[in-house]
Amino acid sequence: MKRILAVTLPLLASMALVLLLGASLWSIAGSQTPVNLPELLAGKMNESGVNHPVTAVLLNFRSYDTLLEIAVLVIAGITGISMARTASLEDPELRTSDSLLYALQRWFIPLMLLLAGYLLWAGADRPGGAFQAGAVLAGCGVLMRLGGIPLGFLRPGLLLRVGLGLGFAVFLLVAVLSAMAGEAFLAYPPGMTKPLIITIETVLTFSIAMVLLALFVSAPVNDAGAPGEDDS
Amino acid sequence: MITAWLMAGLLFTPLAWAVLCLLLDFSRGRLVSCLGITVQVLVSLGLWVAVAREGGFLYGLGGWEAPLGIELRVDGLAVTFILLTAIVAGACGLHASVYLAPDNAWYRYFWPLFWFLWAGLNGVWLGGDLFNLYVGLELLSLSAVGLVALGGGINALRASLRYLLAALLGSMAYLLGVALMYGQFGTLSIAGIASLLPETQALVGPGMAMALMLSGLALKTALFPLHGWLPPAHGIAKSPVSALLSALVVKASFYIAARLWLEFGHELGSTAVAQLIGGLGGAAVIWGSWLACRQSQLKQVVAYSSVAQIGYLFLLFPLTFAVSDTASLQAQQGMTLQVVSHALAKAAMFLAAGNLILATGSHQVAGLAGVSHFLPFSLFSFGLAGVSLMGMPPSGGFAAKWMLLQASLASGQWWWIVVLVAGSLLSAAYVFRIYQASFVAKTGVDDFYHPPGSLEVIPLLLALMSLGLALVAEPLLSVMALSLETGGAP
C-alpha cells in the first residue's frame, strides 16, 4: 500500500503540474506580448558592436547578467577544487595509457582546438561564442587528460587559480575602466566595443574551459576532514 | 554622479575582492578582506545616507534602460538591507578571520566564496529585473553551498549536497516562472510587468508563473514544510558561515518573494493563497520552536530557531492582502524590523554558539555544564540575542512583533496574534533551556578553552545592536518607506 502511494502520489502531482503548465502555456500563446523586445533589440543592434543578437544581449545589453554568470562558474570551480584531495589530481591510476587513444589524439586535438577557435570567432555574427568554445576546449582537455598527457597546470596551485579567475577579472576590469573613461559602468566606450568584446570573449573561453576541466579533474571527497566542528 | 560611484563600488568591490582573494592564501586574504570590509561598510553607509537625503533612484547598467538592459532599483528598503548586510557580513568576516585556522589549506577558498556571497546579496537587494534576480540567487546559493562544504568531512558534504539540491529545485521553479512571465509580457523588468498587469485579461499564465516563483522561493527560504534542508546545513557549517547563512542568505529569497507579492499580489493573489502562506508561516513558528526545544545539539537549537523566525516573515502575505493601507504599511514595517533584528540576533547567536563550542569542545547542549561560571561573556551575548528573539522590549524583535500585532488587529485577522504569542513563549523556552544547561555546576576547575577577546566582542556588539534596535526604529523605518515615487530621481 505504502509503495503504491509512493509511486502514485508523485505521478499524480507531476501530471497535475504538466496540465497546469500546459494550460498556462496555451493561455500565453493566445495573447500578444505587450512589449516587443526582439524589435527593440533589432533597433539597437548597430550600437551593439556585434552582428548576432544573442552575443549582443549577452555581452552588451545584459552584460551584468553574464558577468555574474561567469562568477557562478568560478564559484563552481572553486568549490570543486576546494573539495579535492591534492593527491588525486596527480593520481596515475586514473590515467589510461592506451596507444590507440594516444594516436587518435594527435589527430583530434588540433582539430578540436581549431573548432574552438572557430566557434569563438563565429559568435560575432552567428550562433557560437565563449561558452560553446570553452566547452569544446574543455572537452579537448578531458581527452588529453584521459590519454595520459600530463596537464601540469591543473595542479591546485597559483596557476590553476589564475586561470579560473582570469576571464572574470578581465571582464570586471573592462567594466570598471569603462566607468573611469566617463561612461556608465559596463558601458563600452564608443568605437572600442568590438575589440573589447572580442578580448573578453577570448579570455572567457579560456577560463570557462579551465573551470570545466578543473571540475572534471578534482575528486569530490576529501576524507581527511578538518578537526573542529564537523565531527559530531 | 556620486551616487553612481557609490553604486558601482557596492556592486564591484565584492567581485574584485573575490578575484583578489582567490590568488592569495588565507592569511593574506584576511588582510585584504579587512580592507574590503571597511570599504564596503563605508560605501553602504554612504549610499544609505544619499538615499535618505535625496530619495531612491533607478540605475541602468551599461547605459541601457529597461526593458532592453538591466535596471537596478535603489530605494529605501534596498539600502536598509544593504547596510544590514554590510554590518552583519562584515562582523561574520572579522569573526571568521580569527575563528578559522590559517594553517588549514582548504580555508584559502573561504575569502573568495565569502566575497562572492556578499556580491550576490547586494545584487539581490538591488535587483529590479526578474532574470537578474535569478542570477543573483544562483550566485548566492552556490557560494553558500561551497561555504557549507568548505573543509568539512563527509557529513558536511552530505548536508551541503542536500542544500544544493533543494536550492537548485527552488531556482528551477523560479526560473520556470520567469520564463512564463516573459512569455506573457515580453519584458523582465518587475516595474514594467507591474504596470502592465492591470490591463491584462488572461491571468492564467501569470498566475501560474507567480505560483511557481513563490513555491521556488519558499523552498529556498525554508518555509515549513520545505525546511528539511536548513538545520543540517546551518548546523554543520563553521559558525561564521552558519551566521551568514541564517542571518542573510535565507532573507534574500524571502525578499524577492515579498517584492513580487507587493508588486503583483493585488492582481495575481487571492485571499486563499495569502492565508495559506500565512498559515504555513504560523506552522513554521510553532513547529520550528517546538523542535528547537527538543534538540540535543547547541547549533541545531539555533538552526531550528531560524526555521521558526522565518515563519514570522511570511505573515506579511496575509497582512498585506486586501487590507487597509495603514495595516499594510504596518505589516511591511514589521517585516523589515523582523528581518533586521533577526539577522543581527541570529548572527550574534551563531557566533556566540561557535565560541561556546570552541570553549567546551562539545556540540551538545548538555556539554555546556559549568560554562556560566568561567565564560560568562559569550553566554551573555547568546542571552541578549535570545531576548530579541523572544520579543521582549526594547529589542528589535519586540518592535517587529508589535507592528505585526497591530497590523493583525487593524485588519481583523486576530488568529495571527495566537501565533505571535505562542512563538514568543516557545522561544523563551529554548533560550532558557540553554541557560539551564550552562548553570549546572560541574566541577570547580576551569578546564575550558578561552577564545580570544575579539571573538567574544563581535557577537556581543551584534546582540547589543539587535537589542537596541527599537530605539532607532523610527529613523530606520522612515528611510525604509522611501520608495521611488516619493524621492526625486536624479
Automatic annotation (TrEMBL), chain A:
Keywords: Cell membrane, Membrane, Transmembrane, Transmembrane helix. Residues 104-212 form the Na+/H+ antiporter MnhB subunit-related protein domain. Pfam families: MnhB. The chain crosses the membrane at residues 67-87, 107-124, 130-146, 158-181, 196-217. GO terms for cellular component: plasma membrane. This is MnhB subunit of Na+/H+ antiporter-like protein. It is a multi-pass membrane protein. InterPro entries: CPA3_antiporter_subunitB, MnhB. Belongs to the CPA3 antiporters (TC 2.A.63) subunit B family. It is found in: Cell membrane.
From TrEMBL, chain B:
It is found in: Cell membrane; Membrane. It comes from the Bacteria. PANTHER family: NA(+)_H(+) ANTIPORTER SUBUNIT D1 (PTHR42703:SF1), NADH DEHYDROGENASE (PTHR42703). Keywords: Cell membrane, Membrane, Transmembrane, Transmembrane helix. Its main location: membrane. GO terms for cellular component: plasma membrane. This is Multisubunit sodium/proton antiporter MrpD subunit. It is a multi-pass membrane protein.
